[in-house]
Amino acid sequence: MNNNARTTFSNNNNDYNNVGNPQKIGNPVNPHEEQQNSLLTRVVSHVQKLNDVMVEVTMRLQEINEYNRDIVTLSQVWGNYMRNVAFNLESIQRLDDPK
């Protein structure tokens, strides 16, 4: 038997009422539980940080999309203006060929 692994057994029936504590319900203690809890805490912390960063990225992408909508609108206005100018110049026969 591994000397590092602490094992606690109990024959007392009252110990089975303490479900949250494995030492009191007669189950052997997991020797890696502290390491697993530490790793789980790190994972949760990193996921929270990742979530915060993703919220920030989402906000920045929304800002960029708003700016892009303004650029698209300006581009459409400019394109309509250029078509109108070309139409009017053709109608008065003053459209020169591009060089």
TrEMBL record:
Coiled coil: none
InterPro entries: DASH_Dad4
Any Pfam family the entry gives: DASH_Dad4
GO cellular component annotations of the record: DASH complex; microtubule; mitotic spindle
Primary location recorded for the protein, binned into one broad class: nucleus
A biological-process GO annotation: attachment of spindle microtubules to kinetochore
Keywords: Cell cycle, Cell division, Centromere, Chromosome, Cytoplasm, Cytoskeleton, Kinetochore, Microtubule, Mitosis, Nucleus
Residue ranges of the region described as Disordered: 1-36
Localization per Swiss-Prot or TrEMBL: Chromosome, Centromere, Kinetochore; Cytoplasm, Cytoskeleton, Spindle; Nucleus
Keyword Cytoplasm found: yes
Comp. bias intervals (Low complexity): 1-21
Family: Belongs to the DASH complex DAD4 family.
Name of the molecule in the record: DASH complex subunit DAD4
Native source species: Ambispora gerdemannii
